[in-house]
Description:
seven-stranded parallel β-sheet; two-stranded antiparallel sheet; binds adenosine-5-diphosphoribose; 10 helices; 269 residues; alpha/beta
Amino acid sequence: MKAPPAAATSAAVIPASVCTALLDARHVVVFTGAGVSAESGIATFRDALTGLWETFDPEMLATPEAFLRDPALVWGWYEWRRKMVMRARPNPAHLAIASLASLVPRLTVITQNVDDLHERAGSTGVIHLHGSFFRPRCCACSRPHGVPAGEPDEPDGGRRLEPPRCGHCGERIRPGVVWFGESLPVDAYRPAEHAVRNCDVMFSIGTSAVVYPAAGLPYAAAECGAKVIQVNPAATDLDAVASFNLRGPAGTVMDLLIRTIWPSMPASR
Ligand code: APR
């Protein structure tokens, strides 16, 4: 008989059992999704009304076929999103996660996000499962291409913008992100899977956990005996496998968590 999902706890208090699990942990994994950047003003994908996929059609913008069909539309849209990220700042969740690195014996940060807010908050060795806005490459020879200098000057929602050309083979440059229908980079997925199968505690922060194979990682961790701590204002399919469901915005929950367990740490707000 399957155990009922762990009761959701409001973000007002951090349960003592969460504190104990973290203080006992040798290896902690933090797995994040778009929700961790929501408080930095970056839209998530599936949140009602505000999610990007509420306004934009992923079939038209986030598939290899879409880029073949209309490269200027796709490139312009990603340049607009890169602009939004460049204007954003890490929020208390990113800062709290970065500070964890000096508080636990070993920390691995795995993200589905293509922004650089974890790095700008001070996290190092972040595993980007779905690529990055800051790693464009040639769509034919895959050679990396320099990120266009400065902040893109793109209107809201993007506009048609011809992508630059590869200096080596002359083909078009594509955004360095993983599109629907594409495989995840092996050099990201393999170490991520290894980390989740060898950790004691895994945070799943700000993800709806519906896009696989990334969404399978918290299940793999739970299977291997790790305690999964979900941080999300809403319920997700992960409620069933999480040892703890902390309901609330990541910035509030993670900041409170650090200050509750390590009171001498300065607030990340
Ligand atoms: N703090 C924590 N979680 C939040 C916050 C917040 N402030 N605001 C929203 N959330 C939660 C939502 O409740 C939702 O469960 O974040 C989640 C965001 O889910 P999605 O928009 O589906 O984003 P994500 O899970 O990262 O999407 C996975 O899908 O579109 C593709 O490649 C894209 O990497 C992305 C993947």
